[in-house]
Write a sequence for this structure.
């Protein structure tokens, strides 16, 4: 039982980590896009 709980916890943390990473990358791309577009204008 203990091992199962730990595995589920690790999987959940992994999913959260990936989600946060994707959101972070998306925000960085959006910021760079806005900055470059602002420089052009």
């Amino acid at each position: 039982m203990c091992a199962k709980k730990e595995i589920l916890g690790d999987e959940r943390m992994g999913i959260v980590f990936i989600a946060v990473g994707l959101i972070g990358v998306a925000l960085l791309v959006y910021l760079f896009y806005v900055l470059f577009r602002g420089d052009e204008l």
Observations:
- The mean pLDDT is 84.
